[in-house]
């Protein structure tokens, strides 16, 4: 029997994935790469979108048909692998959540002039409020949708204001002057790496959208998530390109804020505060929810008190930021590990996609398997290279 579409949940999962991807790092990466590649960054975005869709379709479809979370799928492939992946996800999620809390605090600082630390505490309080509600899943869906739409509207406004050379951007998207492989891998890792890969898939599973009958809904939600994140990326790219094409210099200490301010003056700077807060707080919610979803199947107490564990995750992230600040070495190592998480998790999913004990009589499309295998190889090489490059810094 065909499962009816639940657009609220499908869009909620899509926006959860997209807004989890669009954090402080996403805003900075997009601006910095636009500065270095100019219109040719369009090619990087296009390539990353194709790769992102391939990753998400592999992951979300296998989660749906197996009716298992990623860690349980991994344990079915190799006992203990699920626990290993869960530890990587949680450590990476915690490290990046410290940055997310700081980004939300910066947003409040821009908007109201209060200290970043005070803004971080207020932001954590808002995120915690979502998980104090009985129907936290529905509130989280609505919150992700609302903040995501707000970000899109504001970034579109700034992009229009900056008057970018759209023709040049479109031309260089297909005929780039320069191709930057590292930029492509960075964008893929930042959009579908670490916990982000599973944010929407786990949300759909928790909402009961699973099984072969739900594959159309799952595919629709996965593609929608990538589309939403990509729309935000494209308009932010155009906004930055408009500023850079006029020969204006960005402030190296805060490139995305420069784009908004140079494009739309002081109003633009305030809009940046709203966008930074929106991007960061939705990433706080997505990171906490998805990280805890990776450990709740190992302990019935965690599953029973899931929302309180999510709240604890947010509190710990905030306390570390307020007392220590952004621990640079931890973030460097977490970033490198994040690059390695995707090939490990996607590789596991691809093995599961052809294991009858896990997926039953479902037949996984060959093109998705080939596509996924290519991403695994590229991301494994780049993640390993980056980690080796950065390890000496950690022991200085």
Automatic annotation (TrEMBL):
The Swiss-Prot or TrEMBL record annotates one GO molecular function as: cadmium ion transmembrane transporter activity
Q: Which GO terms describe its cellular component?
A: plasma membrane
InterPro entries to which the protein is assigned, alphabetical:
NRAMP_fam
Lineage, top-rank taxon, reads: Bacteria
List where the protein spans the membrane: 37-55, 76-98, 110-131, 143-161, 181-201, 222-244, 271-295, 307-324, 330-353, 365-388
Topology with respect to the bilayer: Multi-pass membrane protein
> Which cell locations does it reside in?
Membrane
Ordered alphabetically, the record's keywords are:
Membrane, Transmembrane, Transmembrane helix
**One of the Pfam families matching this protein, by short name:** Nramp
- Any single biological process term in GO: iron ion transmembrane transport
Q: Which PANTHER family match?
A: SOLUTE CARRIER PROTEIN FAMILY 11 MEMBER, TRANSPORTER PROTEIN
Q: What is this protein called?
A: Divalent metal cation transporter
């Amino acid at each position: 029997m065909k499962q009816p579409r639940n657009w609220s949940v499908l869009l909620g999962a899509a926006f959860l994935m997209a807004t989890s991807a669009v954090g402080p790092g996403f805003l900075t990466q997009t601006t910095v790469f636009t500065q270095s590649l100019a219109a040719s960054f369009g090619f990087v975005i296009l390539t990353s979108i194709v790769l992102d869709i391939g990753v998400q379709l592999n992951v979300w479809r296998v989660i749906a048909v197996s009716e298992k979370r990623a860690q349980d799928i991994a344990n079915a492939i190799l006992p203990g692998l699920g626990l290993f992946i869960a530890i990587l996800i949680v450590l990476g999620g915690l490290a990046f959540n410290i940055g997310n809390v700081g980004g939300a605090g910066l947003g409040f600082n821009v908007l109201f002039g209060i200290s970043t630390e005070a803004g971080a505490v207020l932001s954590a309080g808002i995120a915690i409020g979502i998980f104090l509600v009985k129907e936290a899943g529905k509130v989280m869906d609505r919150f992700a949708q609302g903040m995501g739409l707000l970000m899109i509207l504001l970034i579109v406004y700034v992009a229009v204001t900056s008057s970018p050379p759209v023709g040049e951007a479109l031309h260089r998207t297909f005929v780039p002057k320069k191709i930057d492989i590292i930029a492509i891998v960075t964008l893929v890792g930042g959009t579908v790496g670490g916990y982000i890969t599973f944010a929407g898939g786990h949300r759909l599973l928790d909402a009961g959208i699973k099984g072969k009958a739900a594959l159309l809904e799952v595919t629709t939600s996965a593609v929608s998530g990538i589309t939403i994140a990509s729309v935000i990326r494209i308009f932010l790219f155009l906004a930055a390109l408009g500023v850079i094409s006029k020969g204006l210099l960005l402030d190296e200490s805060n490139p995305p804020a420069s784009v908004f301010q140079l494009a739309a003056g002081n109003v633009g700077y305030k809009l940046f505060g709203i966008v930074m807060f929106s991007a960061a707080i939705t990433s706080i919610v997505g990171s906490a929810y998805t990280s805890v979803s990776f450990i709740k199947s190992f302990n019935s107490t965690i599953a029973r008190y899931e929302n309180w564990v999510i709240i604890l995750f947010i509190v710990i992230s905030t306390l570390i930021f307020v007392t220590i600040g952004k621990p640079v070495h931890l973030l460097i190592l977490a970033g490198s590990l994040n690059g390695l998480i995707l090939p490990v998790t996607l590789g596991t999913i691809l093995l599961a996609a052809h294991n009858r004990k896990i997926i039953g009589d479902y037949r996984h499309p060959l093109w998705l398997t080939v596509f996924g295998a290519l991403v695994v190889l590229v991301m494994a090489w780049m993640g390993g290279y980056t980690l080796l490059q950065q390890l000496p810094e950690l022991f200085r």
